[in-house]
C-alpha cells in the first residue's frame, strides 16, 4: 500500500502537468497521477505513451479550446441521451421541418459539435501514428479516429462552418449520436478522449519544465541535478545510494524537508511513468512508496504525532518483511517523542532497516547522538548532510547536499540573535 498523501498531489504535482481544457480530462489527469502502476511493464508502457507525445512536435502547435465549448457539447449529448428521438428517418425530417425552434437549436449545437471535433482531429489526431503507441493505448487512439471518421467531421465541417447543418444533416447526425449512445460507444469515446487529453497534458508539462525521463536499474539509485519543481530558484543536488539506509542531517531551516520531498517527487513521478525534475535519474522499481513528511496528529483516528510516525513506519516494515522492495522517506523520525526514547528506537529502526537490502530508506534526523550510537561505517548506511556555513555567527544556508554528518547546531545562536536571552532575563 503506497503512502503519498504528504506529497500534496493536487497542490504540488497537479499544477506542473495541468494543461487540460475540461473538467473531465482534469479528473482523469488526477487519476493518472494518483494511480501508481503495480508493475515495471505498466510504468514503461505509460512512459512510452508520453515519450511519443513529447516527441511529436505537431501535437504542440498553438491550439486550445474554451471550457465552455466542451461544456455545451457535453450538455447536448447528455440531453440527447435523456430525451432520445421520438422520430427517425423521414418522420424526423418532417418533424424538424415544422418545429423551427427545435430545428434551429439542434442545428446550432450540432454545427458547434462538428466544428469542435474537426478542430480536435486536425490539431491532434491527424498527426498521430497509433502504431507508435503500446497496443492497448493504440486501440483507444484508433477508436477515437474511427469515431470521428464515422461522425463525418471532414464531410460536414465545411457546411457547418459556412451555413450550419441543414435538416437532413441534423437528422443524420442525431441518429448517429443516439445510436452510439445506446450502444455505450459514446461513453467509451469520451473516456478515451479524456485519457488522451490527460496524457497530452502531461507531455506539455514535461516539455515546459524540461523534465527528463528516468531509467530503471535494479542495482542503482542515482539522481543528478534534482530539485523541488515548485521552487522559483531551486538549488540542484545530486545523490547516489550508498546503502539501503541514508541518514540526512543538517541544522533547522537548512532545507531537509524540501530535499526529502524533492527526492520523493522524483521517485514518485518515475513510478507514474512520467519524467522527473532532474538532469539524470536511474532507479530500481519499487513495490511500495511511502513519503512521510511533516506528519501531524491524526485527530480523526485519535493518534498523536508520535503514534502516526509509528503507524507509518510499521506499514513500510511489514511490506519489507513480505519481500516487497520499498522506498520510504521519513522526515525527522520520532521527533514526536522525548530525546531518550527517540534515540533508542531510532537506533533499533535504522539497524533493523539495513537488512532489507533491496529497499531504500531516506531518514532525516535531529538526534546528534546517533553518530556515536550507530556504526555508520556499515555498508548499508550512508550519511549526507545539508551544508550551512557560519559567517560572523550568522548562518548561511547553501542548501547543498554533502557527504558526511553535520554537527552544527544553530538553535541557541538564533535564540540569542533574536534577543530572547536578554528579554527573558529581565
If strands are numbered along the chain, what order do they take across the biggest sheet?
6-7-8-4-9-10
Low-confidence stretches: none
Q: What is the name of the CATH superfamily of the largest domain? A: P-loop containing nucleotide triphosphate hydrolases
Assembly state:
single chain
CATH fold description of the largest domain: Rossmann fold
Q: Class of the largest domain, according to the CATH hierarchy?
A: Alpha Beta
Q: Would you count the extended β strands for me?
A: 10
Intertermini distance:
54 Å
Count the domains.
2
Number of helices: 16
So, CATH architecture of the largest domain? 3-Layer(aba) Sandwich
Question: Would you list the SSEs in sequence order as H and E?
Answer: HHHHHHHHHHEEEEHEEHEHEHEEHH
Gyration radius, rounded? 28 Å
- Shape designation: elongated
Helix content: 40-55%
Structural description of this entry:
The structure is a single chain. With 426 residues, this protein is an alpha/beta fold. The chain has two domains: 5-209, MutS, DNA mismatch repair protein, Chain A, domain 3 (Orthogonal Bundle); 215-425, P-loop containing nucleotide triphosphate hydrolases (Rossmann fold, 3-Layer(aba) Sandwich), CATH 3.40.50. Helix content is 52%, strand content 13%. The protein contains 16 helices and ten strands. It has helices at residues 9-17, 23-34, 40-55, 67-83, 89-97, 100-123, 135-151, 153-162, 167-182, 185-209, 256-271, 305-321, 339-353, 370-373, 411-417, 420-425; strands at residues 215-216, 222-226, 237-240, 245-249, 280-283, 288-292, 326-330, 360-364, 381-391, 394-403. Strands 6-7-8-4-9-10 form a six-stranded mixed sheet, with helices on both faces. A four-stranded mixed sheet has the order 1-5-2-3, with helices on one face. A hairpin with a 2-residue loop joins strand 9 (381-391) and strand 10 (394-403). Helix 1 packs across helix 2 (23-34) and helix 6 (100-123) packs across helix 8.
